[in-house]
């Protein structure tokens, strides 16, 4: 059963991704048509639906991939297989409960965790169970851990810590002090993102090392240098979100320095892997390789953007505009999603050899995905630049008039968003069907 349950996470994750992109598309259409479904699903509801769904996609896909890699690729016996099932159903029931609460209008949380704080309890329990199973599995069975084991373990531990930290606002000690409250809130969200990056980037190194069949990729000095750099970014890189708060200057300087580094190393690892990858290995896992190469392109594009708005003088103008949204979309879709889809393509290739017959549609979907995401990303940047000019340049007219002047740009965002949704459906639906078929036939 443990084998199938790891695939349950992946099916659940792909469903969350489909829901997330549909919610996101509907929200973008409301910029152009403000009255669209406003009575039933206003933007204030669509945003938490979208954010929660996309985060769930990343977390569930990473979790299911790690479970599969441990049991099916590394051939390890889980410390407690039953905990895997408990973990899955706990997350499934919690997700359903959060969706129902959103539909009923109960959104008492903040930002990434807009749901009622009571739902964080089963979420934390799920991560603790994952940690028990993970460390219990590796504790006595594996020596000289490759870097991805360290990254996954670090990601799990910090997930528990930073999800808890994100809810310190419930206590008056933080709630009644605005600067303290905002500092902790933005710090916890930045580190929460760093925690799932640990999981995702560890998965990328695992997949690359298995495709190339070279363990050196995960045990080299540069791999561990990247690990410690990522850990430093997780612990300190968040501070560039707090430039607007009256914090100590050294915190900003450290954050700025750290923000300049992490993706450079990851991009270097993927680039060198791609250059040294023998053609025969590309043929063994062609789609997994294509998705990983796409991630390399998006790392490069987002690195340029991140370097720019990590500079305080530029951050002042971009903060609170669609430039930040472009960075977020480029990271979660362009980098995290392509890495995770690469992992899922690797997994389906291991679990169901018959799936290769459906790869032509996914190949076309990936080509459309890269083009539409780039144009979508550019449209978001354009919207952010225009809004920043209105905010800090010569203001002409009131806010609503500025918004009306962006109608064409918002239309482009919605149009390219629609094409992006279509491309992802071309990838996700066949992949989801492949996993369902694999579960039904009992293949692993």
Question: Given the C-alpha coordinates, what overall shape results?
Answer: globular
In helices, the fraction of residues equals over 70%
- Regions with pLDDT < 50 over 5+ consecutive residues? none
What percent of residues are in strands?
A: under 5%
* Helix and strand run: HHHHHHHHHHHHHHHHHH
Termini separation comes to: 10 Å
SS element count, helices: 18
Main β-sheet description: none
What is the overall pLDDT average? Answer: 84
In terms of topology, how is this protein built?
Elements: H1 2-32, H2 43-73, H3 81-103, H4 120-138, H5 147-165, H6 172-175, H7 178-212, H8 216-219, H9 221-236, H10 249-259, H11 262-276, H12 279-284, H13 286-309, H14 312-318, H15 322-351, H16 359-392, H17 399-405, H18 407-441
Explain this structure to me?
With 444 residues, the chain is mainly alpha-helical. The protein has a domain at 285-444. The protein has helices spanning 2-32, 43-73, 81-103, 120-138, 147-165, 172-175, 178-212, 216-219, 221-236, 249-259, 262-276, 279-284, 286-309, 312-318, 322-351, 359-392, 399-405, 407-441. Helix 7 (178-212) packs parallel to helix 11 (262-276). The protein starts with a helix and ends with a helix.
